[in-house]
Amino acid sequence: MERWFKLQERGTTVSTELLAGVTTFLTMVYIVIVNPGILSESGMDFHGVFVATVLASILATIIMGIAANYPIAIAPGMGLNAYFAYSVVGGGEVSWQTALGAVFIAGVLFIALSLTSFRYMLLDAIPTGLKHAITAGIGLFITFIGLQKASIVVASPATLLTLGSLSEPMTYLTLIGVTIALILMSYRVRGFLFIGMLITAVLAWMMGLIEMPDKLVSLPSGMSSTAFQLDIGTVFSEGMYGVIFTFLLITLFDTTGTMLGVAEQAGLMKDNKFPRSRGALLADAVGTTGGALLGTSPTSAYIESSAGVAVGGRTGLTAVFVSLLLALTLFFSPVVAVLANIPAITAPALIIVGFLMINVLRQIEWTDIEEAFPAFLIVVLMPLTYSIATGIGIGFIAYPIIKLLRGKYKEVHPILYLFAVLFVIQIVFLEH
Fold first, then answer.
1. How many helices (H) and strands (E) does the chain have?
2. Alpha carbons 340 and 343: distance in angstroms, whole number
3. What is the pLDDT of residues 61-87, one digit of tens each?
4. Which of 77, 210, 277, 431 has the highest CB neighbour count under 10 A?
5. Are 300 and 53 in contact (CB under 8 A)?
């Protein structure tokens, strides 16, 4: 163990790595409740998605720990799951099986990129401002979904949207849940989202809004309803190239940014470079591909891993411990099913995570119109069009057009021109 994980070299111990694993697990375990709840709204079996979520997370995190030796956990990404359920499948014209096919293709492309240097070219081609805008736009999108799920924002014939009735039990309980999470977060409580969900669940039970299941534990079930149900052929016949690109782009950006941030925090960067980046990216790529086969949306490296690093996690042993703890959750599906079906329990997580993601807006150079306006379009149009892909596409089209009008066409990477043309075709001529 010492030779494989290099514990002494990195100044850590098995007990410290265990503490880091428990800390990271508590901060990100909310996903095993939220993800099945979101994807089940696309018609997928809740229990099947729950098992797929856990297994995909274990697969990717184990690879991260053993092959790359980083204390980083991987699980289905927030935002990507909302895009899958509400944008891709939500319109009713695309089945969840086809959406899984798009995820699988994106995963295979991600594996190919991870094995070549083209991934660096792709990352360099996208302006920093647009990258931050994508993150912020997704944050605003999932916050919007959380507000809708809790009926804080409701449909209105006159204005399309309006404020819901805050006297409804589920609505004001959501507001209480958000408040609890914010208080815990302000006091820097580890696992504030998960703990907040548990406290809100107790309040829901006291209010008669929730009934506890007959049993707390059971053997994993439902896997056959989602595993290997993907439909790859329809992806191409329906021209879902924009969807594939969106899955790939967001996963690549989120994972790379998170890994760099956590590695820098842990002091594992060398000469400002990310060692063993190929193995780290492969972990997420395999997780996304395997997750599609099992029945879940794309995986992504979790920024919550920084909580484990903060208490001393420095090696892949932290990730291994996270995987073992995730495996235990497989037997608590009855409890998870009850919690996931109460909007007041899951909506606060969507709202708070969206808030955390939108913080990157401060890093956009708002005084530079060439950078700021395309970024603005991405952020605003994601929630307004209810499509992450549309927001990205219009931003990617606007950026080179503005540069061309300003006579700065040489400042745009050729790949971005290609993306702009593809998005014009996708948005103007194709359905999806």
1. 20, 4
2. 7
3. 999 999 999 999 999 999 899 999 998
4. 77
5. no
